[in-house]
Amino acid sequence: MNYPYKKYRYRLEIEGIEQAGFSEVSAPDASIEPIKYREGDYPHTGYIKMPGLIEYSNVTLKWGISDATEFFEWISNVAAGTIERKTVTIILIDDEGGDKCTWVLENAWPCKYTAPDFSASSNEVAFESIELAHEGMKREK
Q1: Is the pLDDT of residue 101 over 70?
Q2: How far apart are CA 39 and CA 141, in angstroms?
Q3: Model confidence at 20: pLDDT above 80
């Protein structure tokens, strides 16, 4: 029997960033807004629907805070006017450690950074997150 792959084994590759790992990565998605069109002599009472522009959702990366500062530096550079776009690859891994499914985000750059919240009575890991905007997505496997 062919079982589906599990979503808890994955890795993320971002060119030029050495961040170790991520606790969560939101799923990328794409949507195409339909354009309704109708001419006056159209014989039916409905519309023709044509594909409009494609829109890609932002992807959020979440990790336990450490001494690594690459993501904060990346968004700081964007805030200072230097937008460095990178290729981001999300790879789903099977139980044996093999790469199974790959999604590539094109021209990604950070548009939101979130520092951890703090609570003196909490017994949890402190998480940072960054949201990446991108201009396209491909599935390679």
Answers
A1: yes
A2: 42
A3: no
Tokens 């159209």 locate to 42
Q: 117: buried, middle or exposed (CB in 10 Å: 19+, 13-18, 0-12)?
A: exposed
Predicted TM-score (pTM) of the model is 0.88
Tokens representing residue 96 in the block = 């044996």
Give the residue carrying structure tokens 């450690």.
97
Sign of CA dihedral 87, 14, 61, 67: negative
Ordered by where they begin, the domains of the chain are 10-139 (2.30.110)
In a 10 Å sphere around its CB, with 0-12 CB exposed, 13-18 middle and 19+ buried, how is residue 100 labelled?
Answer: middle
Tell me which residue of 138, 134, 129 sits closest to 56, measured CA to CA. Answer: 134
> Structure tokens of 2?
């062919």
pLDDT at site 23 = 93
What digits encode the pLDDT tens for the residues 3-16? 899 999 999 999 87
